[in-house]
Amino acid sequence: METLLRDQAEKATLRPFAQAAVVKLKGEASSRSYYRVGEAPGSVVVMVMPQDAKRSEEGGAAEAPVELPFVNVHRYLERLGIRVPRILRYDEPAGMMVLEDLTDLTFEQALEGGKHAEALYGRAVELLARLRARAEAQQDPGCLAYTRAFDEALYDWELHHFREWGMEAWSGRQVTGAELAELHRHFRTLAAELAAAPRGFTHRDYQSRNIMVSGGELVVIDFQDALLGPRQYDLVALLRDSYVELPYAFVDRMLDRYLDAFEPQRGVRVDRPAFKAFFDLLTVQRKLKDAGRFEFIHRVKGNPGFLVSIPASLRYVKTAFARRPELAPLQGLIARYVPELAP
């Protein structure tokens, strides 16, 4: 493997790597593996992909596309002027891609425990506003994100993913037939309301571990599962991040900062109370899904590393439930199996 990785680095850079060090980088929940080849400042990162790399790991995906999603969405983001990692070489038959080395400094690490939260989150929401405004103005049906969407079926699938793993597996009990029927009703209602919102390009997982800080720039990564979704979706991912808990007063301020940047770039006025109410509704769906997904990754993929992030996800859901009292019946039903969500 090391010989293959060094060979890829040499072909990408036309520099010798025969004696270069090879270090496997820490992975997250992805099936892809990453290796650093060489020493800074001349190192590169080689991404090694599984055989089914073109297929999304997220639920609701259609058949695998012809082009690798990472390459397809990367091209679109570059055209929008969004900083993404430079692709130095893509060897499709080998299932390897050589990327620029962005170092190991993630947005999460750069926060230094919150010391730089105001400045970094401000930059991140303004970058997201720029991305979204440009994408809405420059839609591209050739980008895979425009061929898939957060529709009712996907929202509903994710909610039942939570039911299976975040309620039943988490508690060790199966919901009753009557409870399942009630959950179906609540989930369909929630999914329908979320799916009715206008959709645009959505990163899908725009959070503190998917933004790198390199040379003072914010660099967006892990965008291959992008699709169409509401404006608030990436904001929920960032500001209701399971890895970095933020108080709601700070979140509210960052939502205003996002809209302050987005409105003039898009030439629109946004109803802010309605925007924030939808943000809370979407928080319920997204963070329930995350809690269930983390349990799934533990039990099915054998990776318990995300279990520590379940409590934060549930606290976000509980806060959002309190801000959307019409969801009290759903909250009460879920709390029978997840007492952390009891009002």
What does this structure look like?
The protein is an alpha+beta fold and 343 residues long. It folds into two domains: 2-100, 2-Layer Sandwich (Phosphorylase Kinase, domain 1); 107-341, Aminoglycoside 3'-phosphotransferase, Chain: A, domain 2, CATH 3.90.1200. It is 48% helix and 11% strand. It contains eleven helices and nine strands. It has a five-stranded antiparallel β-sheet, covered by helices on one side. The protein has a two-stranded antiparallel sheet with strand order 6-9. A hairpin with a 4-residue loop joins β4 and β5 (96-100). α4 runs parallel beside α8 (248-266), α5 packs across α9 and α9 packs antiparallel against α10. The radius of gyration is 21 Å and the shape is globular. The chain starts with a helix and ends in an 8-residue tail after the last helix.
